Amino acid sequence: MPLHTAESCQLLSQSRSPWRSLRLLLAAGAALACGSMSLGQSTVQREGEGTRRAELNAMELQAFPADLLTKLSDWQNGAAPTPADWVGKPVLIFTWSDWYAPAKRAMTSAQKLSEKYSKDGLIVIGVHNPEGWADSAKPAAGAGSLLLAHDASGDFRKGLKVDQDPDFYLIDRAGQLRYADIKNESLDAAITEVLAEKTDDAAAIKDRLASDAKAKDAAARRTESLHADARFTQIPEQEFTPPTAEDFKTVKWPALPKDPNNPFAPVPTAKVAQIPAGEWFPSKPELKGRMVIVYFWSPVFNETFYEPMPFADQMQTQYGRDAVIIGVMSTFDNVNGVTLKDEDKDPAKLLKRMKAIAESRNLKHYLVADTGNAMLNSIADTTTGQTIFPFWAILSSDRTARWWSSPGSTSPWGAMQNVMENDPGIKARRAAEAEWLRKNN
């Protein structure tokens, strides 16, 4: 199997950047990396990552920049609103381009939301792309409160840091931008939340969140004091009842990667990974109730392990309570266009080289030999004859791949956090450990 060919050079650069970004996030700390999670509003999911997401987070819970309304023109279904028209009313703003299918679907969703919630005071505003306004379909308001406008200059989009139609923004009853760039599946939850609030409650949300954060910090400090001498990675393995397959089906896992440049690509499905039966270094880890993060490498090529191994050590040290990081030694036909000799694919020689590498390093994570490529073949798309390098994958505790390197991959950090926070196996194991700590401290 080719690890990386000339045709996939561009994919190589794309696949490396998320993990390099993740390294920076690890260094900066989980609180900063999560961004919106620090607001205490974790049930509503946002889109975006990196610098743009951080900038959007900073805009949340601030007064909506009313001057942006003056950037819009050609209002339909009503006159241009003023901030005074919004007093005490939530406002949902969405951007759309009538020629772009996903954005047209968003228009349909927005119409339904307007009809569903206008009786409760929700105002919905659709803002069209600078291009194509004259020929765009402009639905009537119908039973809802649907206003449409043209962002002819594009300045409105720039002000809200719109990256790709459709983007959704929700303003609460106090005129604050409550949520910026909401995921479609979280729209109902976000709207229901702001509609349930009174104006005074919305205005006081920052103080309330600060108070909640202070209380959680105090509780965490009490727990830390109670378990000052406890080391989670040194807790004896505890018996616990494993979650059922149905428990895993009810979790909202990360979106599986799909190649955005290939509209005919099959819809990706979750893949059950095959844990290798080969030799482990420095020992075989305990996987029960833990997520697994893997990378695939070959001892024949230094570039396949010089960078990933120190990074894997860092992750194992930081997340060792809930995650096991594994470097899976695999066999490839060529790397970077260089065809391997038969001796470079000999299992016995590969294993010998693997031992030498493992013994020369004080590894914090784990290595396993998989010269038959059982694990790689169970995750990677081998039909194209290409594998993006470096190839990483994230598995939940039931050994199902929930993220893997792909042109359509979202941030690996978001996938890691999702699995770590929602995995039923991790929750069950943690509950058993918490009970052990209670009894032994």
Labels describing this entry:
globular, 2 domains, 441 residues, seven-stranded mixed sheet, Glutaredoxin, alpha/beta
Task: Explain what you see.
With 441 residues, this protein is of the alpha/beta class. It has two domains: 2-33 and 247-440, Glutaredoxin (3-Layer(aba) Sandwich); 41-205, Glutaredoxin. It contains 14 helices and 17 strands. The chain has helices at 9-28, 30-34, 50-59, 101-117, 155-160, 187-195, 199-203, 205-226, 245-249, 308-319, 347-359, 374-379, 412-422, 424-440; strands at residues 2-4, 62-63, 73-76, 91-96, 123-128, 146-150, 168-171, 176-180, 271-272, 280-281, 291-297, 323-329, 334-335, 338-339, 366-369, 392-395, 400-404. A seven-stranded mixed beta sheet has the order 2-8-7-4-5-6-3. Strands 9-17-16-11-12-15-10 form a seven-stranded mixed beta sheet. A three-stranded mixed beta sheet has the order 1-13-14, with no helix packed on it. Strand 11, helix 10 and strand 12 form a beta-alpha-beta unit. The longest helix is centred in the middle third of the chain and has 22 residues, at 205-226. Mean pLDDT is 83; it is low at 1-16, 27-42, 226-230 and 382-387.
